[in-house]
Design goal:
Order of helices and strands: EHEHEHH
Structural class: alpha/beta
Strand order of the largest sheet: 1-2-3
CATH superfamily: Aldolase class I
Distance between the termini: 45 Å
CATH architecture: Alpha-Beta Barrel
Shape: globular
Largest sheet: 3 strands, parallel
CATH topology: TIM Barrel
Radius of gyration: 15 Å
Number of strands: 3
Amino acid sequence: MEFSSETGNADSGTLMLHLLGRCNLTCRHCYMNGGPTREDRLPADLVIRAISECSQLGIGALYLTGGEPVLYREIEEVLRTAASLRLQLTVCTNGTLLTERHAAWLSRCGRDPAEETQHSIR
């Protein structure tokens, strides 16, 4: 396996999870053939379990993709789990649905948990 700056580093593996097929767009070039009518999705309990096992497996980088990952109902829980394990996180989104709330979730994922505690105390 080769690693690049896009897939972590040579000291860790990468887990890529296609959370769902649903997307708000129907791009002709989409290799997942995602779209608004797709209903397939990974069960949240399996996603959380897979992420939780990353450390044991030597996985340090996590890619979340879809379809459109912000449409995944349990995305906040998934992001919290990834952040708690301090995984290098990439969310592959088309960006058209991002809100301030989404930006806040993603920002919290990149913070040190101690910093988050300090931030909430202020």
